[in-house]
UniProtKB/TrEMBL annotation:
The keyword Lyase does not apply. This is AraC-like DNA-binding protein/quercetin dioxygenase-like cupin family protein. Keywords: Activator, Dioxygenase, DNA-binding, Oxidoreductase, Transcription, Transcription regulation. It comes from the Bacteria.
C-alpha cells in the first residue's frame, strides 16, 4: 500500500525549458502488485530500498533488488511488478522536462534501465528533500524542483557504472594517451598495446564506465580541441582539422557539422560575434 504520494502541476510551458517533478512517493508494494501501461507522460525513476521486483520496457525485463535504481522509459510500453515472495519497498518519482530520454541514455547507457544506486545514504537524503520541497509548495517550487532534478542526475551519474574513482587504470591510461596525441590515427591494435587487453574488452569497459566507445570518446576530444582553436586562434579551418587528427578539411567539416550543427567557419563567426 502507498505510504506517501505527492503531486505537482508545473506552470504552463515550464517543462519545455526546465525539469520538474510531477509525482513522487514512497511505496511498500503488496506481493505481486503490478502496473502495466502504454506510453505515459514523463519518466519514472524507482529506487528499491528493500525486497525485489522487476521492470519491463518494450518487452525486455530487468530485475531490481535492494540498492538499485530503475529508470522507466515512459515513451515506450512499460510495466513494473513487485516480487510475490519479497515485494519491494520503493521511493519513486515521475519527472518531466527537456531531453529526459537523452539524459537517461547519458546516465544509464543504451538499452539499459537498471543500475546500482551507489551512495544510498545520499540518495535517500535526496528523496527526503524532494518530499519536503513538494509538501512546502513555496512560490519558487518550480525552480526548486529543477535544481533538485539536476542534482539527482549528478548523483546518479556518479554511481554504478558512471565515471567514478573506480574507473580501471587501463581505461584512464588509454584516455590519457589519446588526449596527449589527438593527431594519431589510434587503430584498435594501438589501443590494445596501451591497455593490455583486447579491443573488444576495452570497448566493453568504455561502455561500462563512460557510456561511450573509444572511437566516440576520441571524436569528442578532437572536436573539443577544434572548438578551442577556432575560438582562440587565427589558424585556418584546414590547419585546425590537421591539428585535431582529421584526415583532411572535408572530413573535419563533415564531422564538425554533424556533431555541432554548423560548419567550422560558421561556428567560428558566430562565436567571435559574441
Amino acid at each position: 500500500m502507498p505510504m506517501r504520494s505527492l503531486s505537482h502541476a508545473p506552470r504552463s510551458g515550464h517543462v519545455s525549458a526546465a525539469y520538474s517533478v510531477l509525482r513522487a512517493g514512497h511505496l511498500q508494494a503488496a506481493p505481486g502488485a503490478a502496473l502495466t501501461r502504454g506510453r505515459h507522460v514523463g519518466q519514472d525513476i524507482l529506487y528499491c530500498r528493500s525486497g525485489y521486483g522487476e521492470v519491463e520496457i518494450s518487452g525486455r525485463v530487468f530485475g531490481v533488488g535492494p540498492g538499485q535504481v530503475a529508470w522507466l522509459a515512459n515513451e515506450m510500453p512499460h510495466a513494473h511488478r513487485a516480487d510475490s515472495a519479497k515485494p519491494w519497498e520503493v521511493l519513486w518519482l515521475r519527472l518531466d522536462g527537456p531531453g529526459t530520454g537523452a539524459m537517461r541514455l547519458a546516465i544509464f547507457g543504451e538499452n539499459e534501465h537498471v543500475r546500482d544506486a551507489g551512495d544510498t545514504v545520499r540518495l535517500e537524503a535526496w528523496f527526503q528533500r524532494l518530499f519536503a520541497t513538494l509538501a512546502r509548495r513555496e512560490p519558487t517550487l518550480d525552480l526548486e524542483l529543477n535544481q533538485l532534478v539536476a542534482s539527482l542526475f549528478v548523483l546518479l551519474a556518479g554511481s554504478g557504472r558512471g565515471p567514478t574513482a573506480e574507473m580501471p587504470r587501463l581505461v584512464a591510461r588509454v584516455m590519457q594517451a589519446m588526449r596527449e596525441d589527438l593527431t594519431a590515427p589510434w587503430p584498435a591494435e594501438a589501443l590494445e598495446d596501451i591497455a593490455g587487453v583486447s579491443a573488444t574488452h576495452l570497448r566493453r569497459l568504455f561502455a561500462q564506465h563512460l557510456n561511450t566507445s573509444p572511437h566516440r570518446w576520441l571524436m569528442h576530444e578532437r572536436l573539443l580541441k577544434a572548438q578551442n582553436l577556432l575560438a582562440d586562434t587565427d589558424l585556418t579551418v584546414g590547419e585546425i582539422g590537421v591539428a585535431c587528427g582529421f584526415s583532411d578539411v572535408f572530413h573535419f567539416s563533415r564531422e564538425f557539422k554533424r556533431h555541432l550543427g554548423a560548419s567550422p567557419a560558421n561556428w567560428r563567426r558566430a562565436e567571435r560575434a559574441f
